[in-house]
Design goal:
Length: about 300
């Protein structure tokens, strides 16, 4: 038996800012951010959605299944900042999202590929293909303020400083502080070297690189999954890394490749963190084009250079 949910109304302010270049770590302050004008997002009614299976509030289980699949089938095929997706991805009946320079890919594209792969696994397991109706295929191809990809690619003018912000902006995510992350959450890091990375959180680590069950005094960083490294197969692409916060140096006894000099901060501009919600909790509050046009995202290739400590 299916249960129909009565429509109800959300009114949540969106945020869109005047176009500006990728931020410099030393120039951003909370005060300047608070002064930026917000562009209201129209109220959107949530339509009836039948047949959505019950389950957890969060999409982490499917994100982790997607990571396991991508690691096993498309791992370490090479990193390239100009490449997107390790392979073409079918967007249900709406067409194909075409890979660019497959099988190479880079970090922000890796997060999008994880999400799209999670969609596929979820739809096939549950029979709920409505995930593909939520956003048009072009939202995973364009870089405007109305495109999810434009937010995942990071654009402070969209109030999007990472994958977590992107999902929140499109009513698909929820903020989680670093201390409350769970495997399958999304993180964007900044480093003291003025570079950064988009990753999926796999667990907290101690000084020996051991994955811990929860946050505590022994945490010095975290294990993550993303695309990084060199262009050659076996030297880059989808893989795991051990991120270490700058105050703990760069321990040489990690069980895998290290990513040191990561900035710990409660400021979401520097350490952007959050969870993806399960489809039945998506709010249908989606960014609208502002009255004053905002420039589309331009990927900061110097910032997302793909190089971690042991590459």
């Amino acid at each position: 038996m299916y249960k129909l949910l009565l429509p109800f109304l959300f009114l949540i302010p969106g945020a869109a800012f005047a176009a500006q270049p990728q931020f410099a770590l030393e120039s951003v302050t909370l005060e300047t951010l608070r002064e930026l004008p917000a562009v209201p997002v129209p109220a959107v009614s949530i339509p009836l959605r039948a047949g959505q299976p019950a389950g957890d509030k969060y999409f982490n289980a499917y994100v982790l299944k997607a990571i396991a699949y991508l690691s096993a089938n498309y791992g370490l095929l090479g990193y390239d900042i100009n490449s997107i997706l390790t392979h073409d991805i079918q967007y249900h009946t709406y067409g194909v999202i075409t890979a660019r320079h497959a099988p190479l890919t880079m970090c922000v594209a890796a997060q999008m590929e994880i999400i799209l792969t999670a969609f596929d696994i979820y739809a096939k397991e549950t029979g709920d293909y409505s995930v593909y109706d939520y956003l048009p295929k072009r939202s995973f191809e364009g870089l405007s303020v109305t495109d999810l990809k434009g937010h995942i690619w990071v654009n402070p003018a969209f109030n999007a400083n990472g994958t977590a912000d992107a999902l929140i902006n499109f009513g698909m995510g929820e903020r989680r502080t670093f201390e409350n992350l769970t495997p399958g959450d999304f993180v964007n890091i900044n480093r003291t070297t003025k570079t950064g990375h988009a990753v999926t959180f796999m667990g907290y680590i101690d000084k020996a690189g051991k994955v811990l069950p929860k946050y505590g005094a022994g945490v010095i960083g975290f294990k993550y999954f993303s695309s990084q490294g060199r262009a050659a197969a076996g030297e880059g692409g989808f893989d795991y890394r051990y991120a270490v916060f700058s105050k703990f140096g760069c321990p040489d006894n990690m069980p895998g490749k290290r990513d040191c000099n990561v900035i710990y901060s409660a400021d979401q501009k520097y350490l952007n963190t959050g969870a993806m919600l399960s489809p039945r909790f998506w709010t249908h509050v989606i960014p609208q084009a502002p009255a004053v046009p905002v420039e589309s995202t331009v990927l900061n290739r110097g910032f997302f250079n793909g190089i971690t400590t042991d590459d």
